[in-house]
Design brief:
By secondary structure, the protein is of the alpha/beta class. Helices cover 45% and strands 20% of the residues. The N and C termini lie far apart (77 Å).
Length: 675
């Protein structure tokens, strides 16, 4: 295939034989193949040349393929270059997530099939060539449009100065470069130049004396037939209008209108530019944009699907381990079960980090505003790490500024996520000593508060030269950290984005002593209490909610198609003393509810035959209002769209898999504590 300009393809691999193999696959094509044997050399090449595609090896010494790709995507001019990752590793799930989160277009596993790789590369090159042609064409059309507009304005000024009689108007009309039509205040065509005759396909005598609406009906429409609106110099510029030719066809045009006088009578000169080619180019670019957006949607759907597929078995592992730990094991068995539980939680954290980062990248991360209590938030965060600190000489302490109100408005889930990340890092990197959390009021405004959080530990600390990398995605101090302590390197990057969404900042401060100190600020809204009593009294005046009774008080339906999840929920609810029945799909849910009364339905959203959404909708439509049970969604999906859909259908809450006993207890306490 021949090209009008060089098609540069960057091949990045630290092994000579691999580069030779890639070049052999592409030798028959007229591509300009550029070699790079390291990530650093690849970045230097990208600074010098424009590339249609990058074929990038993942496993390289020093800067690996993932790090190289991240830096490429940070640069404005190179972030849209497609990247095909080549790897010797199998398509492990975390490996795939990492590549696609960075911005990979495709993945090939060594040894690759030459024909398959070549077809993929040819496809991306074809897309590059199409986009390149569109870009060049658009730039040329834009430049031409600017030149024409400039010429038109100059021509009109000249025309209006010269026109004093119809004879002068005819001379100007015949010598005009662009299409020009002259008409009077009644909309009658007085004159037009040869370019206009050619453009519209009429003879001159077929138009002179006729209404301008014959050629330009949109002018008559805009001025309601009176033309009084056209009373000033260069009064209007209309884009994307559609004039009509003699044969009835239309085309896209841009027109400009100016005013002059003959014997004290006004007339109007209209220049017409055919912009059909530019319009088609714009439509092609819009189509390309829509295709890119579709690709982004496919990526989001893929991540959501993978979330569901991973969370469903994780639900069985974590939930059953919870039950196992609480089943009277001996000390050795308990130790093994707790290891399984911690490992499952660690895997879940990796999954959540990757999915959150994907949401942030696509701009779909939204914050909610609900009342939250800072003291409870800190204590709940500390409780999560009790097991890890119990066997170490490690204490956790917190201090909250007395000037802060008991409650504020904010996103409790995302604020908890920031604290869990930062406190979790402190616990991870501190063997003994103390972890402090300090919360201070910086500024108080009429409706908002600026709050500072300080998380300080006595752990291994952070070298000054490494601080620049702290808040970058997939970044840790060095590779040995990942091996020793684990993690994706996404936690601090996610914290930074969440803090900025809360109109705050985050930083690391150098300690004179051992350890690390992180400081972040947020801007929260003040919480207006429902009545004066609540606003004046502290937490001691709040009514305590009675605990859920551990007796067979409630009749609960589990709507779930997965057998393991059925058993898990059944054991949890029976352990809490409730009677339970199971439905494996939405149709069974509707059949059961016809014959029995239920207090609560735990509704899975994705079931065969009829899903949870349709089943809930049918219940709301067909069951008498007083007999409708409370419906709680139980699903592996974390999509905000699904959550909003559940609430819109009339569900009362949402439990995300993997399910934990405390989450079930919390729902029961919230809805049935007063029974």
């Amino acid at each position: 295939m021949e090209f009008d300009y060089p098609i540069n393809i960057l091949l990045v691999d630290d092994h000579e034989q691999n580069l030779l193999a890639l070049e052999a696959v592409l030798e028959e094509e007229n591509y300009n193949l550029v070699r790079a044997i390291s990530g650093e050399e690849a970045l230097r090449s990208i600074l010098k040349d424009e590339f249609a595609l990058i074929v990038l090896d993942v496993e390289m010494p020093g800067m690996d393929g993932f790090e190289t790709a991240k830096l490429i995507k940070l640069r404005e001019k190179s972030k849209s270059i497609p990247i095909i990752f080549i790897t010797a590793k199998n398509r492990e799930m975390e490996h795939l997530f990492t590549g696609y989160s960075i911005g990979a277009i495709d993945y090939m596993v060594k040894p690759f099939i030459p024909q398959l790789l070549k077809s993929k590369i040819d496809g991306f090159v074809s897309m590059y060539v199409i986009n390149k042609k569109l870009q060049i064409q658009t730039e040329l059309l834009h430049q031409r449009s600017l030149e024409l507009e400039k010429t038109n304005k100059a021509l009109m000024r000249t025309t209006f100065e010269l026109i004093r009689t119809e004879a002068q108007a005819r001379i100007i009309g015949e010598t005009s470069i662009d299409t020009m039509v002259i008409f009077n205040s009644e909309g009658i065509i007085l004159n037009l130049n040869p370019a206009a005759i050619s453009m519209f396909g009429y003879h001159e005598d077929e138009l002179v004396g006729q209404s301008i609406s014959k050629m330009l009906p949109m002018i008559a429409e805009r001025v309601d037939g009176s033309y009084k609106v056209l009373q000033k110099y260069l009064v209007d510029k209309l884009s994307d209008v559609k004039p009509i030719r003699k044969d009835g066809t239309t085309f896209y045009a841009e027109i400009q209108i100016g005013e002059a006088t003959i014997d004290d009578s006004p007339f109007f000169a209209c220049t017409i530019s055919d912009i059909t080619e530019r319009k088609i180019a714009e439509q092609d670019m819009l189509k390309a944009k829509e295709e890119a957006e579709q690709a982004a949607r496919v990526k989001t759907e893929f991540l959501a699907m993978m979330s569901h597929e991973i969370r469903t078995p994780m639900n069985g592992i974590i939930g059953m381990t919870d039950l196992l730990i609480d089943s009277g094991l001996n000390s050795e068995q308990l130790e093994y079960a707790e290891i399984v539980h911690k490992s499952s939680d660690a895997l879940l954290n990796v999954i959540n980090d990757i999915l959150d980062f994907s949401k942030i990248e696509s701009g779909k991360m939204e914050l909610e505003q609900v009342p939250l209590e800072l003291t409870s938030l800190i204590e709940e965060t500390f409780d999560l790490f009790t097991a890890q600190t119990r066997d170490r000489e490690l204490n956790m302490e917190y201090y909250i500024d007395q000037k802060l109100p008991v409650h504020i408005l904010g996103d409790v889930t995302r604020l908890r996520q920031i604290l869990i990340n930062l406190v979790g890092n402190a616990v991870k990197f501190t063997e003994k000593g103390t972890i402090y959390v300090l919360i201070n009021l910086l500024e108080k405004h009429e409706n908002s508060l600026e709050i500072e959080f300080i998380i300080k530990d006595t752990g291994i600390g952070i070298p000054p030269e490494q601080m620049i990398h702290l808040f970058k995605p997939f970044s840790q101090l060095d590779s040995s950290m990942t091996r020793k302590y684990g993690g994706t390197g996404l936690g601090l990057a996610i914290c930074k984005t969440l803090v900025e969404l809360m109109d705050g900042t985050i930083r690391n401060e150098q300690n004179e002593e051992n350890g690390a100190t992180f400081v972040f600020t947020i801007r929260a809204k003040t919480y207006v209490y429902p009545d004066a009593v609540n606003s004046l009294t502290g937490p001691s005046s709040m009514v305590e909610v009675p605990a859920v009774r551990k007796t067979a008080l409630l009749h609960i339906m589990i709507a779930e198609d997965n057998e393991i999840n059925q058993k898990l929920l059944l054991r949890i609810l029976q352990k809490l003393g409730h009677s339970v029945e199971i439905a494996s799909n939405g149709l069974q849910v509707l059949e059961l509810i016809k014959h029995k009364k239920f207090d609560l339905i735990l509704m899975d959203l994705q079931m065969p035959e009829m899903d949870g959404f349709k089943a809930t909708n049918a219940i709301m439509d067909d069951v008498p209002k007083e007999s409708i049970p409370i419906i709680i969604a139980v699903t592996a999906s974390t999509s905000q769209t699904d959550i909003d859909h559940c609430m819109a259908l009339g569900m009362s809450g949402f439990i995300s898999k993997p399910i934990k006993i405390k989450n079930i207890e919390k729902v029961l306490e919230q809805h049935f504590a007063n029974l």
